[in-house]
Amino acid sequence: MGEQLKAAAILGAGLGSRLQSRSKSKPLSPLLGETLLSRLLKDIKKYPFVDISCALRAELTSAEERSQLPNRDSVRYLFVDTESSLHTLGEVHKAATSNPAHLFVTMADTILLPGDLHRFLRICETLGAAESAVLVTPFIDDEKPLYAHVNTAGEVSMFGPEAPQMGEKLVTSGMYCLSRQALEQLPFALSGGMHKMRNYLSFLLEQRERIKTFVVQKSIDVDHPSDLDQAAAFLKDL
User: pTM of the predicted model, to two decimals?
Assistant: First the structure.
C-alpha cells in the first residue's frame, strides 16, 4: 500500500490581479529575498521527485522572466492562459510524460512551513491506489474558504462553503495528492463544464474517491500584498 511520490505539479497560472503592485505574475512576487515560486521549488526539491511541472500564465510572464525561472534544467514549465486552476491542472495532466500512481499538486501561492510540507508528503506515500489527500487547516484567513467536513476516520465526507456544525472547523489549504484514478476523471469533469478545483473535489467524492486529510496549524494563501507581509512574518525565523 502506497509508494514514493514521483511527480509534482505547481499551479500558478491565475491572473493574480490584486498582487499586480508587487509582480505581474503572482508566483514571481518577492518574499524574503526570493520569489514565491523559487521558495516553493526549494522546499519541493528537498523531496526526491523525478518529475516536476510548473504552469505559469503566458500573458503575464515576459521572455526575460521565462529565461530567469528557477531550476529550468529540472522543471517542466508550461505557459498557459487558462480559465481556472482546474483547467491549469488539466493542461499539466495532458503534458505529463508519465502516469504516476499519485500526483502531488500545489497552488503556487500556498505558504507552508517546510516541515509541514515534508510531513504531508510522507502521508501521501501511504495512500492506496484509490485514495487521495488534501491539506487542511483550522487557520481561516480566506475570502471564500472551502470547508472540509471530516469523519472520525480522518476522511472527507463533504466539501462546502459552510462550516460543519460539529467537530473542528477545517478549510482546504491549496495542496493535494491526487490518485491516478482521480486524475482519470479530470477530462470528464472539464468536458462537462466544471471550472473550479473545489467543484472537482466534490465530484471526486461523488465518484467514491476516498480523500484523506492532513491537518497543519497554519498555512497562508497569498492574494493581497498584505498576505506577503504576513507570510514573511510567518517564515522569518526559519
Answer: 0.95
